[in-house]
Amino acid sequence: MARHISFGTPVNDAECWAFSLLADELPEDYLLLTNVEIPTNSGQAMEVDALVVGEWGVYVVDVKGYIGRLNAGLHAWSLDGRDIDNSLSKANYVARVLAGRLKHKIPVGVYAPWCQGMVFVTGRKGEEILVEKDHGSLSIYTPAKIIAALTKEWGLTAPHKHPVTAAQKEMVLDTIGQVAIVEQRNNKIQDFIKLKCLFLQQGLEVWQAEYNPGGWTAPWLLKALVFSQFENQLEAEAHEQKLRDEFKRMQSLSGCSCVPFCAPLINDGEQIVLPIRMPRGIPLNVFEVEQQSTYQLLEILRRSITGLQQIHRRGFTIGGWESHCVFVSDDADVEFIDIRDNVNTSEDIAQYANAFLKLAERTHQPRIYHWYRDAAQGKTIDLDAVRCDLSALIDLGVCDSLPDKIVIEPGAVIDHHYKLTTLLEASERSQLWQARHIQGNYPCVISVYQQVDAHWPSLSNMYRSVAKIYHPHIERVLAFGQLPQSSELFIARSWAQGQTLDEIKNIEIGQPFNWFVQILSALQYLHSLDIYHGAICPKNIICAHGNATLVNFGVGLDVVATHYAAKYADPVLWEVEGQAEKDLYGLVASFVDALVPDSYKGDCGADGIINALMQYDKAWLGEAFFDACLQILRFEFRISPNQTYAEQLGFSASEVNNIGL
């Protein structure tokens, strides 16, 4: 793109199109002066369409919009058989005048650059023109060859060809006079000074600029529409309306986070300009994510979510999610410079999540990057949930910039708060530790699970829900997260006093019934909130005197497989049953398995647990309760939405109330 300085307004469409072509196609070190006047010795000035200061010479270019068959001779020209003026003769005359002016100005030891005339015949924007030259050396060119003629050595008519030096170029500008002043005038829009063109496409220009009212400067972006460069009036009006709509949107969003400030539209008759304050930071596609700390990334994500929510609440969407339209700074500033409002809210959230997914994954926080993965696929649109998670991670201060990998052993500290003391149980994929809260000095339990990354979303939702509810027979969740530099998951729980259901040696009369009804009431509450345990077995029921507690939600799959599901449940039926039915099956099977001696069970399959149930006195258990348990173990029990579990299993209200529920 050549350096283009306009001294006047083009007089017709042919000149507009020609100047645009020359400015776009000529090299950067070329200078294009359009509608410029060449001073003469007599004091008069001769206007030329374009003056090109190039590598091999100075070209006086006369632009003609002829359409048809042009026959150009050395002296006479004709267009479709009609005589017309010889434009090359005029251009050569002006070139000789300019050369004479240059010779009078050159200092000793400096040669004047070669000046020659040239005619650029445009046709109808490069078409519908045929040029026939009597002499092939005549400098008359169509759009197909004009650029080559101006940039190649063969286009020069000089007998000796020498490149134009920097000193000669300065001499040409000095001869024309006030070039710098004109260029500054062209690059100034009110108090904005254009510095660098960032985008140029058929009338739409984006400039880097500075606001310079005097005494201080500030960086801005200028979106400009140049009316003369559009093909027709309708297209120019359509683009003008889009720019005005963008201005209205930005004004409506004034005060929202992530929305840059814009100044009023500027319309000087030739162009309309929207000034936008230069966004802080750099585009997202060149932002060095790897150089940022975890807290910086979390803060960037939080501010971006906050800005997106504010924009949505005012009834707009962004839509312009190209990486070069999103600016991010090291100080966690986020700004969206292309707010189009052309998609719905769900689509906007999905595009946002996809744009920021790389940053989210770099935080190494599963609850964060899993949300962005799901949102990018359209599986969630809950902005509040992830914003709360981001705020919690930042405010709690648990994300070290370079966390050390934790070795699971006695004395290890988990999540800055829990010190491991005794290993209670271990399997191939999980460990259960007794721990102590360091600051509070009270006992608690830490479970560590391996290879659970794929199940993180469901586990995260479950434990977030469990942590917010209270029931006397459901474990209290204290903390939940991922161990640093590993895929291992930890869950901190309050210490449940007692023993697992299968380890109790001395059982008093009535205790199992009380424990069973307590856990049944807990399941009733959980299922009403769409929370399911998914792993009920004797190892996950802690009993002490008159109290039973349900522990180890969801992730103890290897524990349940070892102690219950793989041992008793029919795998085919287990696969197709609902989650509530599985929990009820686990509850009944756990009590039957724990309270009936192995000698009465028979085999260890699904029939074995049914055989064990048959050892009970049906009258002693109650016929309704016995039949319900049998149906549950056979997967024939169907849950009624209008009854409590206690009622469906045959318990009266007085029986439930007598155990303190």
TrEMBL record:
Residues 10-121 form the NERD domain. Residues 418-661 form the Protein kinase domain. The keyword DNA-binding does not apply. InterPro entries: Kinase-like_dom_sf, NERD, Prot_kinase_dom. Keywords: Kinase, Serine/threonine-protein kinase, Transferase. Coiled coil: none annotated. One of its GO terms (molecular function) is protein serine/threonine kinase activity. It holds the Pfam family NERD. This is Serine/threonine protein kinase. It comes from Shewanella aestuarii.
